[in-house]
Structures
1.
Amino acid sequence: MANYFESFLTRREMFRLGSAAATGSYFLPLIKPHNVRAASKVSPRGSARFAIFVMLDGGQSHVDAWDLKEHQWTPQDFDIREIQPGVKWPMAIYPKLAKMMDKYALIRSAAAWDAVHGRAQYYVQAAHPLNLALKKELPPMGAVVASEYAGRRRESDSLPPYVAINVTASQAGLLPSGFLPAAYSPFHLNTTTDLSAFSPDPEGKKELLRRWELLKTFDDRLRSDPSLQAKAFRDYNDHYEGATRLMADPRSAAVFRFSAEDKTRYGNSTTGDAAILARNLIEADAGTNFIFLQQNGWDHHKDIYLKKNHWDHSVELDNALSALLHDLSATRRPNGKTLLEETLVFCLGEFGRTPGPLNTGLNGRDHYPNCYTVLAAGGGIKGGKIIGRTDEMGAKVVDPQWAGKRPIYMEDIATTVYSALGIDWTKTLTNTPSGRTFYYVEPLSATQVIVNKEIGELFG
Amino acid sequence: MKHLAVFLFAILGLAQNPLPKDHPEVKRGRRQQASRLTAEIAGGASAKASPVSRRNFIDEHIFGRMEKDRVPHAPLAGDYEFFRRVHLDLTGRLPKPEETRAFASSSDPDKRDRLIDKLTQSEAYKAKWAYWFSDLAQVNSNRLGTDGRNLFYQYIYDFLHLDRPYNEVVEEILTTRAASNYYIGPASYLVRWVVIGATCTDTVHEDTSDEIAIWSAKHFLGINLQCVSCHDGRGHLEKINPWMATRKREELWKQAAFFGRTRILRRAEVQTTKDEYSIDDKGEGYDARARSVVRVPRNGKGMVEPEFFLTGERPQPGKPLRQEFVRILTSHPQFARATVNMLWAEMMGVGIVDPVDDFDFSRMDPSAKTPEGWPLQPSHPELLDALAKDFANNGYSLRRLFRLIAKSSAYQLSSRFPGEWKDSYAKYYARKFVRRLTSEEMYDSIVGATNMFSPIPVPNRGMYVDYATEARSPEDFRRHKDINFFMESFGQPNRDYSPRTNDGAITQAVLMMNSPMVKEKIRAAPGSYLGGLLAQQPALGDDEIIGRLFLRFLVRPPLEKEMAMARGLLTRNRTGGFEDLQWLLLNKVDFIFNY
């Protein structure tokens, strides 16, 4: 009985399609999205090269955090102080961020389109409403950025363009690249798993490379012979080549390093580790431009003021985010720019939580889309700014305080991200599987037509 | 006014950007993709085409067509190829070396049929298809609560075990009433689709009815009502499905109105966010004026009366609506057609109608004219009808259907093709299509081959399972973070909003080559398969162990060349060499494809 897979060796001429290109180009654009059009002339800002989203999965209670509303139900031990004229702050749970308001801005006039986790989380990743008919094909923001940045990729880049960290508990899950090439799908890393696979120690690296060489000879020549152009195998082999490059890249050791000192400074937590990884990725500048990092467990319907709920999550976030912003602003590239100047950071939940008294019976807060707070930093964003004013309760936007003259939605944030990254956000793609035009930023939001705008106020 | 603007915008958007000529889903379907993949992976073979015997009516249709159109086909798969494939397709797991050897050496002319009969009775078969149907119904604990999910899984497993008539099962899951889905298993099918509004206890009635109409039509009629749940087909679906392009949103409402009295409520006295629901028939009907939290506003005129989407048939006056829906649904031939087509696609790689949930009734009938520029949709319309009739006439038995397909020569063709392959042969099923293993198959193949299991806990059941397909839903893996990460990386869906993907990725290669999980499993540890072979007394020779490892991982003996290479690995360090060999076998190309 002849070996099944041996058969193509005897017929290898079938796979020859002329001269061969070298492999290892997995992330370079093999398939170009075509029919790309730009609808209008806009000038993207181009002030950043990286973007980090810090997603507060479940939804943070804005009135107990960055748009604090002090009422009789607010816990006594929040240690509320005025840290800037008009800015009341729960010092007990966000002490570190309190001291660095010059590094970030707060958008208090943010609002979400949806009040259900899955759909609202989808919105944060996609910046488009969840349309079940289009779900399979619609690429998330990170994939769009990856595709736009494909041309800027250098030969030496070994890390994937879009990295997701700790997206382990969301209902939306991680959105794959849709109709864009699979290489632009989020490369997921979970800091609670053993990540040693990605950056083996010298001994492990030696063993890996030895086995990899064995595999190339042991396996059919399909794997090692670049003249064999069968696409499925080329892809398959490219994945292995890409993986080996990543694991063997000396920079990987730095990316996947969590020193004891760092871990302490970032708060010894899952989110702290995620933030260290994000920092390392930006610092390495080895191909990753978009990071979607998630802190899980903000859905405090019940006993929100119990220590393990809002309090602990806030402290974990405070430690991680403050250390991240600090490190990014303290590190300079040879060109003199700090990493924070090159990196746009947005931190937000999929929505806020019900303001006012706690819900009866459960002592928690439920989902609230009408108004909440988003933290934004870096990439040219001016620190210390507060955009938007809400009412006494934090239930309604009283003054949006930006040119849009309405609450700020995910579409506006996407516009801002694309602009800062130098991407024309008015682009559309018509060559989609469904035939429906894909707008980089959707003019039809969940229920109404809006004119999406860059949040220029953030920048000065 | 606002909504009109939205609508106009949508239409204009389409008109300004006409569909590109190379519309991927229209021009290049899964059939072409499968054909390419297979051609690339399986390549050609020197084997000479030989006529195969026609073993049941499937073969009459498949080979009859090829004979008539003079299309050449692959030879029958050899015993090893067949043995591996049929295990993966029917049970999702690899066979044991002893079984493979016994099968290959048996001269029983009926050995393939006997094997198929045995496999379709096995626990692994039930587990695989219980997992598969749970995937289809998107069963998870987030939507159904852990108890609701466990019970629904049990219900699915039991109907497969007992091979209950599928029409009866569908009737039950669509009509069950329950004080709680934590106590009545089949209630969870409908509960799964409940739509939640602004607060956790706010279940949105008409949106829920819409979802039920959409998903039940997808599962039991093979049609996609998603698009017409927001707008009429006209102006949207002409290039996608000409039949659906003529249908209206109002008709979706009428289908949903069969569930207008179906009331699904979160159990209020539980007062938590637990996903425990009651389901009864005390709803007030489907109101087309009702708000929607998930789609374009309805702006209908009032209460909607039920009418079956395919025929316009109405329920008999005074009869319960859900029962009437099931009567009309299961007596329509499309119910059996959609079901057999869906399972045929799982076994054969591509549906007779493909995608399986997008039937287009304007191009079903071979004797009628299809719309200009559109070919007939089914590749084998007569076979589809014959399969559906056979299914309906034989008690809607799933087990019988699987056996019928697996026993056909059509299923048993090799994926190797003698001579030059043409894409146009794909629609004839002239060879077996190659597919990548699913995340669950990958995991189960690894633990099965190495005999290195990591017990997976099933919450609220006080039990542990060894295989991925025995888990109730993907959340069960969360207790093992590394396994969970492995499963996700290989495309496991969360049965919520994240879909299954089956693409390769760098992460997969990293995990296969270097994850602590895989590295641990390939060690010659006590209790591992390799450890057992090495400890055996009297000692086994190198060649024997190499042979068994090949059988275990790849379900075939090594070639001479491979045997020589494997021997070479042992010279440095015998145990280490065998571990290297296991690493190589797991990462070998033929491990990750089903061919």
Note: Chain B touches chain A through 92 residues (CB under 8 Å).
2.
Amino acid sequence: MANIFEKRLLAPVARRTAGGAVLDLRLPWYRALPLSTVEVAGLRIDGREVPAERMRFELNGRTWRLDEIGEQVKEYWYVTDSAFLHVEDPALLADGHVVELTLNLYPPYIPNLTWVTRSQQTLRAA
Amino acid sequence: MMSYAKPRLKLGTTLFSFTSEFHSREYTFEQLVAEVARRNLGPGLEIIGFQSIRGFPEVSDAFIERFRELMAQHRLQPSCFDANADVMLRRGQMLSIEEQVAYHEPQIRAAARLGFPTVRCQFTAAPEVLRRLVPLAEKLNVKMGPEIHAPLGVNSPPVLAYREMYAKVNSPCLGFVPDFGSTARTIPEPYLDTLRERGIPERLIQMALEIWKLPLDAVAKRAELAKRLDGEPIDPTYQSALGIMYNIMSPNDVRSWLEIMPQIIHVHGKFYGFDAEGNEASIDYPALLKVLVEGGYQGYLSSEYEGHMYSEASAFEAVSKHHALCRRVLAAL
């Protein structure tokens, strides 16, 4: 489903690291949500799927594996804050790769809704 | 007898209207408040705890003090505080009644500390949750109640369950927050345009709209749509996209609000956009405001712009037009 937050989900500018990059993410929703209701559903670099174990999710100064964020019921992603996706992938050591992120939200006051947001950016380093 | 001659309801704005301006970091919370006052979009100010307050449901004394200063400085009145019934904190697992009560408590306390007289709740919480919160609301002297939003109307089963509980408990703290989208006359054009942009044929959009007008609940409307589309060679995503319109707005009778008028504690004046004459095509404001005034409603009407779901036009301009429309209609009543 197309939605208005799509264009802000993934910033085009990333921070480069020794083995990849740190992507800047925004919450595609109008209010803060518990991190437990957020799911990184997929990341592709030039169409190639990045395995979940090559990624870490950082919010409010803490970092988790992707399979741990469903447990974080007391950690809120505030509506104007960035979260950061640490990606270990040598392709990201150079500019110009097309990155596509899919993020699912399960708003906890709307049972049965899955809010899917997908955004594509040609990344460059800060 | 109450005099109907002078409308006594008060206007105001919910900061939800400025979701785009806030989410894009163009305006801070304090700048939104200042702009609402500068454009005379008060006196009521409504906020969503989880949108406007970093760290919510915890609220610092410093924030409380600053918020009260801002209200005084800009001559705004806290009107309604929006709480959330986050019953599925853990995916696929519902909080118990006790846990839901505990989740609401700090939100209601925050509303009272900030000076809000009213708390908007959600039907996702069962009547029993609010029933158990009555002693707290009475102690803090705040009114609370769920928002009647499409696809619900005043006689939908979840609303009737609350009305039954209210009749038993009989507390002055319990009420409802109508959203005018529940009593709409048609689906807003900007929303239909998003369907057209997806390539859905006009014939199917009109078919879905015809079903929208039927006196059925959202589930039954989607079933009817499925029946009529059966055998049509269409993209399967069209059916789900069309079916969402039954949850955005409902065509309940504008006069149905009179049934619960004494229990109305706040109103969401939902709107999407305006025609050249400044009228809202999808919501009949002259008829709805007449109902509120006739019913003797004396609370706030928050301008709630939702066009930001489909459009990047300035929400401040939209809310200003909404206030102009409401003032014009109220002056003529």
Note: The longest strand of chain A covers residues 38-45.
3.
Amino acid sequence: MEQARNYVCTECASAVPSGHKFCGACGAGVPPEAQTLETRFFGALQMPGKARLIVVRGDEAMGEGLSYLLQATEHVAGREADQIPFPSDNWLSPKHANFLYRGEKLVVRDEGSLNGVYIRVRGAAPIQIGDHFMCGQQLFRVDATPKDTSGPEADQTYFYSSPRRPSAFRVTQVLEGGMDGIVCCAHEQSVQVGREDCDINFPGDVYMSPRHARIEMSGESLELVDENSQNGTYVRIRGERELSHGDYLFLGRNLLRVEVTA
Amino acid sequence: MIVCSRCSKENQDHYKFCLGCGAELPRESSKPRSFTAPTPPGGTPSPARTTNAPQAQAGRAEAVASAPQLEQLEIDPTPVEAVRSKPVAVEDPLPPELAPLSDETSPCPHCGSDVPENFRFCHVCGHDLDAEAFGEAAGAALGDGPAERVSAPAVAEAPGAAVARARLVLIQPDGSEGEAFPLSGDPTLIGRSTGGIFANDAYLSPEHAEFRFESDQLVVKDMESLNGVYIRIEPDVPIELFDGSIFRVGQEILQFEGPVAPDSADDGTQHMGSPHQGYLGRISLVIGRDTTGNSHPIPPHGIHLGRERGDVVFHGDGYVSGLHCRVHSEVGHVFLTDVGSSNGTFVRVSNESYVPQGTFVLMGQQLFRAEY
């Protein structure tokens, strides 16, 4: 005794091979659910190619550990967003960022937010003048060296400035509220950031590693190098950025981890 | 490298105490250089030292043309050049831990302090020891050797000359006194255009500053000069800083920037950034017109500045003392206090300032002492 291996016609009890729409013996229709054998996921979280965001450190109101499944095509995050809301973080614009699929790829797009979207640097990343990056609790901007304005006046009086050292670029700390804090001009070809014994030191920042990151100039271009810091170094994205499994993002005070099921 | 004589541990050159056993280390290497009016970065664009005799003379002729009261200087036939003698210490009191070591001392005739033999001036009261020696040994010898320098002020005060109420005594790079410039007019304009010892200082504006008397107080007015007039502040006396205040520590020109009120976007979003710990403002290094280099925010408890110690250090500037000055807050205002530096902390005069007797004044590349 054995079980019939295929659909059995309810009219004539003949076996109907899978994929047939009608019974070959009696012509009766095969119900749609029997025509295609679809295996479903227990839950939407298992859906392949769909990503989710896990709030690692988050908005006080929303709590940590929350996860958002990205199963639509676009998902807006922001202070007043419906899909991924962070209502109590005033560092987020009302509509801050959008997580969307381009084909199979998940991307994040900065929706013209005030404070931007930061992604954790894997090893090293190119960086340009004007770009922002984060280490620990600190936010920085990479600036160009201003033009030398110490030349003589029309009346041949020379400007008396502090001793100047040639510097290729500078790193400026950006304070909460938008003011500039520490400015450090590069001595040689790099500026190092950390808790101690670096060019810019934050002994009081418990999220900063002793040697956290550095900006380095090689040739004409700048690179942001994470020095295997515990909490990572984040760089502000320009426009749109493709995401992959294991990426970390800062949106305002919220740290999100990206998980993409293969 | 200093090897500790007690425990033989090797210590870095700037250490004062042994890292191994805490014993005091020899201090030779920690002694700051004496103050000169240093050559500015980028070199000296034109000869500006008053020790250049022909130029000084030429300048003097101009000065006479525009200001007849300077005539008395002409009496001094001495080339200014011969002044350089032994290297000396600054004549303001050095903090004890910075005083150069010398085995042999002799008492200062003026204040009685024990002065190392190699000192040109008493390190406590500033008394000119060479003048004393020459005066006693051979009064007739005035006119050659190091004592020439003394003759200039002597002539300026000679009976019969129009007596200036005050004068600016040039402090030379080695710390000794140079020419004295009488402030005979009221007011007296000083600048490159007034010639004399000012003619060749490319860092002075043509019309730089004006000195005048208000009752018996000397007052200096900055004539909107490019580089300003700096006055040395008293140690341990706090001077209030305002947004844009400029001060000088060693060769460094520093600007105080007051706190900036945070702004937010129209939609209520705040600017994100590093934690703002109630900063009082920032100290920035001036490296050009409206251009600053390194900056440091000032936390509520204030910051110290120095060559070796403090929150902001200037390792490369030998004119900065180990610990030089501090910027701090009292009752909601921000102050600058010199903490006993060797070469002093100078504050740029904002429009006008009193110049107390004996105050050091920096103008252009040159350092003066106001006497009246």
Note: Chain B touches chain A through 54 residues (CB under 8 Å).
4.
Amino acid sequence: MNSPDTTNSDYGMRTPRVLSIDDSELMHRLLRARLQLEQVELYSSTSGEEGLRMALELKPDVILLDIELEGIDGFEVLQRLKEDARTRDIAVIFISASTETMDRVRCLDLGAIDFISKPFDMAELKARLRSAIRVQQLLRMLSQRAQLDGLTALWNRAFFDQRLATEVTQARRLGHPLSLILTDIDHFKSVNDRFGHPFGDEVLAYFATILSSRRTTDIACRYGGEEFAIILPGVSAAAAVEVAEDMRKGFEAHTWRRHADLVLTASFGVADLTMISSTGTPQDLIARADLALYGAKRSGRNRVSLEGVPLAA
Amino acid sequence: MAVAVDDSAMREDDSQPAPLHPEGGHTPLRSRLADDPEMRELVQWFLGDLERRVSAIRSALDTHDAARLRVLAHQLSGSATGYGFEEIGEAARRVESEIRFITLHREASPAADDGLEDEVQISTLAEKTEDLISVCRRAIDGKRGAA
């Protein structure tokens, strides 16, 4: 299953990064010693200006920020982090000797997610750090949810467009194969008309599970309506045809609980990078797969086709 | 935050900073974490840094550089406890909050802005700084004792 939390974005499965901004080397060395066993990469900066630069560059998950810095102070650093879309989502934990309630209120109002008083207990710091990292990961997952199709839990069209472009670039750079499968449920409109939309939704959801149950590297997307697309990095057209064939068989073999006699089928079109010119766009690849899908439909449906030529009956 | 203690004002009323706090009670101080395997080496490094820092604190006090003093004390107040020296952290916090108090006082009554006329405040700050220096020295002596 191409679950959202294992694909997508710079973050992926990387070790959480923590940036500590504090004017004192005493603090940096202490944190380095005390966090060495935590699953984090620790970076340090001794000024607000440098800290802001490093935040942009490293995209840390969490920033530990001291309020009292020489030059621009912690409040100012936080404000600038929050004003910049590229750093806005970084979780900021304030560390300060201040026990003033107003300072804490101001930090939280400016968008810090937590506040730790100096001197702090290391166990508490570690616990708060872990909690912040957990929240960060959940937030990232939620933002990915926005790229998921609600009914099928597959990636949506917007994500597909963006991802296909990335994969085409990547495959060309590495000289790896890349295939695209476009598929469409046969006579879906009449399924809806005869059995109603709730059943139609059930069919779409089931079809989605078949498309997404293969390798984690495959990227299954709902292209629109009853049409779906699967991006297969590292897979040539010949192998993608086999994949599509398995999917076709799996869907055809399904017994529908409330309509035991019903047999539903789908058609598949396959194309890979070698079938378009070396300067061809992702849209060109989609067009080739669409042409193949059209071929499968025209020659009787319930089949897989490559380059407009049906391959399996 | 610039809180340079104004020299001229002090010369003007010709008062001396508070008398040095007697450096009594000179029991060597040992880090609570001296035997913590994760911290052992770092505590030694901290003590080396502390020797330089004490000189810096001394010179900030002698030159009435309150801003510098505040930074030096702030860095210690935040981290000394982490190195197993609670007493240093507390002494540093007292210096820090005294400077903060003086700052607030000056901001609240700009009339007094032409100098820290409140000798009591200045002498309190000097006294607390001497306390800090003294407790740091005890820690440094603890290191020598152990070596």
Note: Residues 1-10 of chain A have pLDDT under 50 and may be disordered.
